[in-house]
Design a protein that fits this description.
Structural class: alpha/beta
Family: Belongs to the PNP/UDP phosphorylase family.
Bound molecules: ligand LQZ7MJT6, uracil
CATH superfamily: Nucleoside phosphorylase domain
GO molecular function: uridine phosphorylase activity
Number of helices: 8
InterPro entries: Nucleoside_phosphorylase_d, Nucleoside_phosphorylase_sf, Uridine_phosphorylase_euk
Number of domains: 1
Protein name: PNP_UDP_1 domain-containing protein
Strand content: 15-25%
Organism: Caenorhabditis japonica
Length: 294
């Protein structure tokens, strides 16, 4: 796969089709027996994802309006995630943090498998805290760093620590950055820190608990900046690792809501917030339209 250092794509689980032909995607609320997955999802080329269900409904509706393609109803049959489809693009929210994201990704990968989709591209469109970049910057991630500042995603399986690489597709990243430039969207590239929580894990001073000093927060942010980290969110290592393992091209495109060097509270006027939220959408939509001609 282009741009990947790790060329070893992992085959899907050997027990998956052999033993369980009647696979049910529990958190999507449907399975191979309950809906015609190939008919509904078989033409998917892009899976766009991000945390909030409301934002992803909005993105799907905006995309439908812009391309004159019909937006599906919410295809999810559970209240855990929403799934909208606009032609070749699926819009699925993933909740907050890697545990929720990992469930959504596994079920999305199985969904694509059952639908017969060969090489879907996965793009995370999200929000983040900037590290030395002005609010409103769209960071297209060059890599994902975990809370111990290593470029791996750690899973604990059967009591053992397993570390997996977190590479992202460089060709896709470069193409997204080029579109951003063309559209006059403020784009930066850099590493993304995947924190385990929003408050202490991101060294905020505005949580309920705080047993470190202000100076340590700034030392940490400066250290991140020196390591090439430009933003902080809570999903990038898992997203990069899972998509890389499956051999799917993927990218992370997150707008920064604030510069963490200047503060911790996210308090943005509504209009400004919507404009920021729109930036990753505008960039990714322009890219998808360029690639598909829709
Ligand atoms: O994609 P979103 O904007 O939901 O992701 C970031 C990271 C956390 O999940 C959440 C914290 O506010 O926002
Ligand atoms: O500061 C921020 C903003 C959004 N999401 C995060 O995880 N951190």
């Amino acid at each position: 796969m282009t741009g990947y250092v790790n060329g070893n794509v992992e085959k899907p689980n050997k027990y998956f089709d052999r033993k369980d032909k009647r696979d049910f995607l529990y958190h999507f609320g449907f399975g191979v027996d309950t809906i015609d997955i190939p008919a509904i999802f078989g033409d998917t080329k892009y899976v766009c994802t991000g945390g909030s269900p409301g934002r992803f409904k909005l993105y799907a509706e905006w995309f439908a309006k812009e391309t004159n393609i019909k937006c599906s109803e919410n295809l999810s049959r559970s209240d855990r995630f929403v799934i909208y489809k606009t032609g070749p693009v699926c819009w699925i929210n993933h909740g907050m943090g890697t545990p929720s994201l990992s469930i959504m990704l596994v079920e999305s990968f199985k969904l694509m498998h059952h639908a017969g989709v060969k090489n879907p591209t996965f793009i995370r469109l999200g929000t983040s805290g900037g590290v030395g970049v002005p609010p409103g910057t769209v960071v297209v991630s060059t890599g994902a760093v975990n809370s111990e500042l290593s470029e791996t995603y750690v899973q604990v399986i059967a009591g053992k620590r397993i570390e997996r690489p977190t590479q992202l597709d460089s060709t896709l990243r470069e193409a997204l950055c080029a579109v951003g430039k063309e559209k006059n969207i403020p784009v930066e590239t850099g590493k993304t820190l995947c924190a385990d929580d929003f408050y202490e894990g991101q060294m905020r001073l505005d949580g309920y608990f705080c047993d470190y000093e202000e100076e340590s927060k700034f030392d940490f942010l400066r250290k991140l900046n020196t390591l090439g980290v430009r933003n902080i969110e809570m999903e990038s290592t898992c997203f990069a690792s899972f998509t890389c393992r499956a051999g799917f091209a993927s990218a992370i495109v997150c707008v920064t809501l604030l510069n963490r060097m200047d503060g911790d509270q996210v308090q943005i006027p509504k209009e400004q917030y919507i404009e920021y939220e729109e930036r990753p959408f505008r960039l990714v939509t322009a890219y998808i339209r360029q690639q598909t001609g829709i």
